[in-house]
Amino acid sequence: MEVERLGCMNSFVDQGSVESCRYFLARRTVLEMLRDRGYPIPAEQINLTLDEFRSEYGESPDRNRLSLSYSLSSQPNNKVHVIFCGTEPVKLAVIREIYMQVGKENLYGLILILQSKMTSKAREAIKDIFKFKVETFHITELLVNITKHVLKPRHDVLTEEEKQKLLKKYNVEDSQCGACSSICTLSL
């Protein structure tokens, strides 16, 4: 009887690696983020289950295989590339290596998924080396898609007319309004 009870509880416990689960969740959130930005992401990529992910990528996924690249169908040169960085701190040499990989491609944007900290020199190099927008996210920021949270209100970009109407309604000037941070995931 004791074995049956343990078997019952074990059915609710994930037997796979934590690493594969983290990559799975972060990858799915990035795909949803790209879809929300207008990139044509196949539904089967987003709806991939954890078991399907593990059967395709394994318990300890190769970061190079997890890389993604998508273009907007309306603007084929609007291409974004996603790279998962390793567990070691991201230093200047890593940024140069990434530049050697993607620098020759005609990219609109690059998303780096970090698992550890990035040095200040590496951050400066990103601004200097790359001629396109580079976004960095720590993998823990992507484990949950915050835009799906029930308490998070829907964010919509205002038209110029709506903006002027709102400014007039509250009797404020444009300079008095706060601006979204460039690193805020909701402002992207």
UniProtKB/TrEMBL annotation:
Q: What is its main location?
A: nucleus
Instruction: Give UniProt keywords alphabetically.
Output: DNA-directed RNA polymerase, Nucleus, Transcription
Give the record's GO CC terms: DNA-directed RNA polymerase complex; nucleus
Q: What positions belong to coiled-coil segments?
A: none
* Location in the cell: Nucleus
Domain named RNA polymerase Rpb5 N-terminal is located at 19-101
Matches recorded under InterPro entries = Arch_Rpo5/euc_Rpb5 (IPR014381), RNA_pol_Rpb5_N (IPR005571), RNA_pol_Rpb5_N_sf (IPR036710), RNA_pol_subH/Rpb5_C (IPR000783), RPB5-like_sf (IPR035913)
What GO molecular function annotation could you give as one example from this UniProt entry? DNA-directed RNA polymerase activity
- A GO biological-process term: tRNA transcription by RNA polymerase III
- Show where the RNA polymerase subunit H/Rpb5 C-terminal domain sits: 144-176
Concerning its family, UniProt says: Belongs to the archaeal Rpo5/eukaryotic RPB5 RNA polymerase subunit family.
PANTHER family in the record: DNA-DIRECTED RNA POLYMERASE V SUBUNIT 5A, DNA-DIRECTED RNA POLYMERASES I, II, AND III SUBUNIT RPABC1
Q: What's this protein's name?
A: DNA-directed RNA polymerase V subunit 5A isoform X2
Lineage at the top is: Eukaryota, Viridiplantae, Streptophyta, Embryophyta, Tracheophyta
